Amino acid sequence: MSIRLFIALMCAVMCLWVPEVAAQDDDGFFSEKPIAEVKKKKVRKEKKTVAAVPKALRKLKRVSGKVNTKAVLYVYLESASWCLPCKKIMPDVVKLYKKMRKDGRVEIVLIGHDRTPEGVAAYIKGYKSRMPAFFSGDKNIDKLPGYSRAGGIPHATVVAADGTVVTSGYPTSILPSWEKMADKAEEEAKAAEEAVEEAAADEDDI
Length: 206
Known about the structure:
- The chain is an alpha/beta fold.
- Helices cover 46% and strands 17% of the residues.
- It is built from seven helices and eight strands, in the order αββααββαβαβββαα.
- The chain has helices at 3-21, 35-42, 52-57, 84-103, 117-125, 171-174, 178-205; strands at 23-24, 30-31, 62-64, 73-79, 106-112, 133-135, 155-160, 165-169.
- Strands 3-6-5-4-7-8 form a six-stranded mixed β-sheet. Strands 1-2 form a two-stranded antiparallel ribbon.
- Strand 1 (23-24) and strand 2 form a beta hairpin.
- Mean pLDDT is 84; it is low at 18-23, 26-31 and 41-46.
C-alpha cells in the first residue's frame, strides 16, 4: 500500500469519527461522548412538582367542587350547617370566593363539620358555590399542611401552597385582604424560585 493511499484512508476514517464522537464541552475541551449526548445534557428539563397543599388535598375524599391546584394561597374554612354564625357570614364568603376563583391565586377549601359528608355537600350546595368541600371526619384531614382544628367555628386559616401558615382568624375579618396576601405570596414565591435557579446555575459553573 502506498503512503498516499494510506493517508487518504486515515483521513476518511477521521472524518467519519469526529462528528459522531468528538464534541466540545463548555470549557472548550473535546469529549469522547457523542454530540447528541452532550447537547442532551445541556438541555435539562425540570420536572414540575405539585405543591404540598394541593398534593395533600388529592388524598382526601372531596364531597363537592374542584380544587384549584395552581393557587399560591389556600384558605381552610371551617364551617357547618348547624352553626348560626357560620351561616350568617357564608353569603359574604361566597361573594369573596367568586372574585378569588376568577383571579386564580387564592383557593378556599371548605372543611365541613357536619355529621356526614352528605351533610357537608348539601350545606355548600345551598349557596350554589363551586367552592371545594371536604368532610372534617376524613381520616386524612389532619394531615393537611398547616392545618389544625380550630377551637371554634367559623374559622379560617390561610396557608401558602407549601403549607406555611400566613394568618388565621375570623373569616370575614381576614379574607377581605386576600388580594394583598396573594400579591405578597407571589413575590415571595418568585424570589424563592429565582434563588433556586441561581443556586442551580452556580452548581453548573463548578
